[in-house]
Write a structure and sequence with these properties.
binds zinc ion; globular; 136 residues; 1 helix
Amino acid sequence: MTMADFPQPDITETSRPFWDGLKAGQLLVQRCENGHRWMPARDFCPQCLSARHEFVPASGRATLVSWVVYRTAFHDAFAGRLPYNVALVELEEGPRMMTNVLCEADALQPGMPLALAIGHEGELAVARFAPAGAAS
Ligand SMILES: [Zn+2]
């Protein structure tokens, strides 16, 4: 049995800067001319509908909002990773995103501080998070 390939995102002209940013080691969010920030990438600000926006670096600091722990693989690429979590995190800048937190399920706590930990799946760079550590 061969290992299935990691599922690839549908990278569009709109979202390409986000993926290129991760490849370069930065997590980027979009910010409109009125200062609203959001993700995932889209062509108009979800709050004021402005089409004037840019990608700006996020700090990489976030807090854990919620999560689920998968104990069944619904894609063959994840069969060797069980159990793993899929988490909703809130970036310090405000936007929320789906990701994985790199720790055991028992260590997950609502509101826990997290730090960006960019992972690599072949050519693809993905935004994951790790516990920020109580001392920092
Ligand atoms: Zn806006």
